[in-house]
Design a protein that fits this description.
- By secondary structure, this protein is an alpha/beta fold.
- The protein folds into three domains: about 50 residues, no CATH class; about 160 residues, Aspartate Aminotransferase, domain 1, CATH 3.90.1150; about 230 residues, Aspartate Aminotransferase, domain 2 (3-Layer(aba) Sandwich), CATH 3.40.640.10.
- Helices cover about 40% and strands about 15% of the residues.
- The N terminus is likely disordered.
- The chain binds pyridoxal-5'-phosphate (PLP).
Length: about 475
């Protein structure tokens, strides 16, 4: 086609002339087409169809899987410690939860669309749960369901005005940082979590980021935290809300791990301390039931009536949801029955006891290792380790399998130092972790899950990890 063949050329300033006076007429080109992007050749496409901001989409947690799959083909037994899926790691769903789900699957109505914002009965139930805590008071109209919290996250950032920025934690859970960066078509804006202060937010850093960036319109908190395993005390949560109030911002609190805390901690929810500040709490069943495959999460909106701008923004989220019709019906339908069952509390307690035991064991095995800082996890089911000794491109682990060794040597030539360690560890031991540089962090380190269900294997993983770190740093 003439138009297609015209566009196969490298864009020169001459080519750009026809941006304003193209041979086929003017109206079809929009100002959205950014000819400055690094896509110099339009080999087949008529126009640049890649969104500005597309470079900001990363999900290291799954990206390392491609490499691990290659190693599996070469005979490596991979221990998948990269993804926060308890079911994939062998956790069994209690029979009583399964029977509630089976019963729901016998009910024709669970095969139907649900209302746009979610089933009314479930939203009523969840509003009551929040109201019982004694802080914020909400109704079902403040709750919107999504197809997993990941879906909610991309909508919440995606529907903000492009210039309105939300500052989030670093290390970041990348679904937040990438979605926010994608909406703004630029790098994510972050405040530091401090590994030497239990991974709590560095409030001075946060305050500065807010104060000196007038575009900052909101603050994101993840508590309990992924990837660090930190659980924030009430004072920290309060101070963040105070900063939001002082600068007229809204707060997003990702509380998908709200009931996964241990070692004497207790998670403070945004609704407990929000006062009259505008906020969004994000919740879901992926980690807690656990049922990640249900793709079911929701947001609770706090104080929308206190600010007309915030209210209008929330309306845009609901309007957008209407275009999509609704979220998964069946998982929503079982939430009241599961959550109100007397066995649910014990189920949570049992799980938390297990995570506590694993967190203590993992910490004990890593804290003795020289050259790293390993903070004990107190919530969620991850631990993040930071390298304090300098990493370089000479450090190695011995890899017996020749094919794997050669593959590793090929792929580490131009990667972040902690990714280099992750690849060597994967090749040498089969342990698959996620480098911290993949979590929007300047620190070198890694995140590892505490999900291995086999006690012996869990011990082997952390012992091997400790030994490998030492070998790598001393090599
Ligand atoms: C902090 C955090 N938020 C959201 C999600 C996404 O949850 P969902 O499975 O509901 O999409 C995850 C999943 O790992 C998470 O760790």
């Amino acid at each position: 086609m003439l138009i297609g063949s015209t566009m196969v050329k490298t864009l020169s300033s001459h080519d750009r002339d026809w941006e304003f006076d193209p041979p086929w007429g003017h109206s079809f080109l929009t100002s959205e087409i950014d000819w400055q992007r690094p896509y110099e050749r339009y080999e087949t496409m008529r126009n640049n169809i890649v969104a500005t901001g597309a470079e900001e989409i990363h999900y290291e947690i799954r990206e390392i899987v491609a490499v691990a799959k290659e190693f599996e083909k070469m005979g490596v037994k991979v221990s998948w410690e990269n993804i926060g899926d308890p079911v994939n790691k062998g956790e069994k769903i209690p029979a009583w939860i399964k029977s509630i789900v089976k019963e729901a699957a016998d009910d024709e109505s669970t095969y139907a669309y649900s209302p746009t914002m979610g089933l009314e009965k479930t939203r009523d139930f969840l509003a009551e749960q929040t109201n019982k805590r004694g802080g914020i008071k909400i109704t079902k109209d403040d709750i919107i369901f999504f197809n997993g919290l990941g879906d909610a996250i991309s909508k919440v950032y995606g529907l903000l005005k492009r210039e309105a920025r939300v500052v989030g934690p670093s290390p970041a859970y990348t679904t937040h940082s990438s979605s926010e960066a994608m909406h703004a078509s630029t790098k994510p804006l972050t405040y530091n979590l401090d590994p030497h202060n239990h991974w709590y937010p560095d409030l001075d850093d946060l305050r500065k980021k807010v104060e000196y960036n007038p575009v900052v319109s909101g603050i994101t908190i993840i508590n309990p935290n992924n990837p660090t395993g930190a659980v924030y005390p009430k004072e920290i949560m309060r101070e963040i809300v105070d900063i939001a109030k002082e600068f007229d911002l809204f707060v997003i609190s990702d509380e998908i791990y709200a009931n996964i805390y241990y070692n004497g901690t207790k998670s403070v929810l945004l609704g407990d301390i929000i006062g009259d500040v505008c906020g969004i709490s994000m919740k879901g069943i992926s980690k807690e039931v656990p049922w990640p495959g249900a793709r079911c999460g929701w947001i609770e909106v706090y104080n929308a009536d206190k600010d007309s701008m915030f209210k209008r923004y929330i309306k845009s989220i609901i309007d957008d949801k209407m275009l999509e019709v609704c979220s998964t019906t069946l998982p929503q339908s079982v939430i009241p029955n599961i959550y109100s069952d007397k066995r649910y509390r014990d189920h949570q307690k049992e799980r938390n006891k297990l995570f506590e035991k694993r967190a203590i064991l993992a910490h004990a095995m890593l804290e003795e290792v020289n050259g790293i800082h390993a903070e004990r996890a107190n919530g969620a089911f991850y631990m993040t380790v930071v390298f304090e000794k300098q990493l370089n491109n000479k450090q190695k682990l011995k890899i017996e399998n020749k094919n794997v060794r050669e593959y590793v040597e090929r792929i580490v030539s131009n990667v972040a130092p902690d990714k280099r360690f992750a690849y060597y560890l994967l090749g040498a031991t089969g342990i698959c972790i996620v480098p911290l540089s993949g979590f929007e962090s300047d620190l070198n380190g890694f995140r590892i899950t505490l999900l291995e269900t086999d006690e012996k294997r869990f011990e082997w993983i952390f012992k091997t990890l400790a030994k490998s770190i030492q070998e790598y740093l001393n090599s």
